[in-house]
Design a protein that fits this description.
By secondary structure, the chain is of the alpha/beta class. It folds into 3 domains: 6-58, 434 Repressor (Amino-terminal Domain) (Orthogonal Bundle); 63-167 and 301-328, Response regulator (Rossmann fold, 3-Layer(aba) Sandwich); 169-299, Response regulator (Rossmann fold), CATH 3.40.50.2300. It has helices spanning 6-13, 17-25, 32-44, 51-58, 75-89, 103-115, 135-145, 169-182, 198-213, 230-241, 255-267, 301-316, and strands at 63-68, 93-98, 120-124, 150-153, 163-167, 188-191, 223-224, 249-252, 277-279, 296-298, 324-327, 330-332.
């Protein structure tokens, strides 16, 4: 049996393809008798427009592209979950691209997205989190953003003018450090994060400023950047614990490093939080399943994803939008920190 198309529907109904499109998408008024005739023909053939037909009719594919750096890091699936929930409400599906942090893969996926004519792009991680991104890498993204609506999520490209949706990581770090100070800690270290990444730089700046504002010493030998992994947290915590003079509390760049830090402490017989308090960052689902449950700073990952899609949708609809939308972080106090009892 021949596959029925919108052109066949229009021909049999003796109307234009544009009129069929208006009925399909309810984008403009159509005379009741004409609508009934078109709907009757569609029902007769059990017509369902495919994606290509919708693309031709609406000049849209209904697809949003998402670029992220590490699908194994639970933070990014949490953001994606929020984006998917919001997108589902507007009928969008998603083309998910995992770059493993490689800029070549980012470039490849940007090109593929243009070829697939996605309606918009959410860009997370990779080059948008570099402290000093090469101008050529910035320009490449700018050129794509001029053709396809784009939103940067928790990142920035200097002077690009691309719309951003972020959680205030500086404010989040301040929350974590102030919590430790308020429960009596004066000797506080910092673990994890790659030095060339902006998220590490922002958190370290907030960490040092908060300590200084409280009149506390910033001990550079207690600041141990490395990476964002569990193994990094474990390794760097071992370094701290093996020092003669060690902190009584540690802020970690993310929850993965905090979990690694807890593991190292347990292995060395150091009790958390009785002997040392630990604060993470992100509030990934695993944070309340580890023992002890992790005190951390929530980036509102689900809401971050939802907001990013809302803003992208406004951008796709050519509505007036701001250049940056900022979400407030939230301190989640659990079991890995406790009041110092003299």
């Amino acid at each position: 049996m021949k596959q029925i198309t919108v052109y066949d529907i229009a021909k049999e109904a003796k109307v234009s393809v544009a009129t069929v499109s208006r009925v399909l998408n309810d984008t403009a008024p159509v005379r009741a008798s004409t609508r009934e005739k078109i709907e009757a023909i569609m029902q007769k053939y059990q017509f369902q427009p495919n994606a290509n037909a919708r693309s031709l009719l609406k000049k849209e594919t209904g697809i949003i592209g998402i670029i992220l750096p590490d699908i194994t890091n639970p933070f990014f699936p949490e953001v994606f979950s929020g984006a998917e929930q919001e997108g589902r409400e507007s009928g969008h599906t998603f083309f998910l691209c995992n770059t493993t942090g490689l800029h070549d893969k980012e470039s490849e996926f940007l090109t593929i997205m243009q070829e697939k004519r996605v309606d918009g792009i959410l860009f997370m991680g990779g080059r948008i989190n570099l402290k000093d991104c090469h101008p050529a890498l910035i320009q490449e993204v700018v050129e794509h953003s001029q053709k396809i609506p784009m939103v940067l999520v928790n990142g920035n490209l200097k002077d690009s003018g691309i719309t951003r949706v972020v959680t205030d990581e500086y404010a989040g770090t301040v929350l974590g450090v102030k919590h430790l100070i308020e429960i009596g800690h004066t000797k506080i270290g910092f673990i994890g994060g790659e030095s060339h990444m902006s998220t590490t730089a922002v958190k370290l700046r907030a960490f040092k400023k908060t300590l200084k504002d409280a009149g506390l010493a910033v001990r550079e030998d207690w600041i141990l950047p490395d990476s964002f992994s569990v193994e990094s947290g474990r390794t760097q915590m071992e370094v701290l614990l093996n020092r003669k003079d060690r902190p009584t509390a540690v802020c970690c760049v993310n929850d993965f490093t905090a979990i690694g830090a807890i593991k190292a402490a347990v292995e060395q017989g150091v009790r958390v939080p009785e002997d040392i308090s630990i604060v993470g960052f992100d509030d990934i689902p695993l944070a309340h399943h580890v023992i002890p449950e992790l005190t951390t700073v929530s980036q509102q990952a689900n809401q971050l994803g939802r907001t990013a899609v809302k803003v992208l949708r406004e951008l796709m609809n050519k509505e007036k939008i701001k250049k940056i939308y900022s979400l407030e972080p939230e301190l989640i106090v659990r079991q890995s920190t406790r009041l110092i009892i003299e």
